[in-house]
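Lecture 7 notes: from sequence to structure.

We start with a single chain of 240 residues. Read the sequence below before looking at the structure.
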Amino acid sequence: MTDAKHDPDTERYAYSPKALARLALSYELRELADRAAAGVPTGSDEYDEPGEEVAEAFALVHQAQEVLVRAVLYERARHTSWEAIAEQLDMKKQSAHERYREAEQTWKDALHEPFNPIPPGARFPYNYLRLHEAAYEPIKAGRDLDEWAQERGQGEHAVTGGLPTLSLLDEMGQVLDGLSYLYRDMHKRPDPAARLRLTERKAALLDRIAIEEGRPEAAAQAEEARALAAQLRAEIEGTA
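Now the structure, written as tokens:
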């Protein structure tokens, strides 16, 4: 990842899909660890309702299943084959693929479209965020997970320190992929707000490329991107 100042709606583009998948896995592992640890003390046992411990254990199983899904998604993000994943799950390749392919596709789509559309008449609270929250806000998630690990004696940056890095040019590639995704449907107009956010980020990255890579043509491209962003902003404000 780069050390640029990130817009909350586009900061994930500074992280590789592999890094985002790892953050989501770490997040769910922390949730599992905290939930399991909460069940160790016995001080409140006498106040438990009948079956309460079974309910808590069942919730742990459910959380462990979420961890497993996130582990599969992370392995796929690091290009692990379905054969290797299936071997660890003690199942056939086809069975592993069929079980987790929908989750993988949902994850990939959510990286580009992090929000669920709000249906007419929906009542809040509504599950608006489609992308895992650790992947949507990776800076905050990484900071929180680092603090959690440090409190347990794992040292500083125990989580973020091991995340795969992303070069400036790779980050630009992800932004361009995001822009291309907006045009995937020839019969649908791209979301102007999403296009504006990505165009502004593209301009900022081009500025950095011009300076850090010594490429003056990138500076001219940055000016073009800013002009387009200004036009998009005017269009959005004009229809508001």
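The radius of gyration is 21 Å. Keep this in mind for problem set 3.
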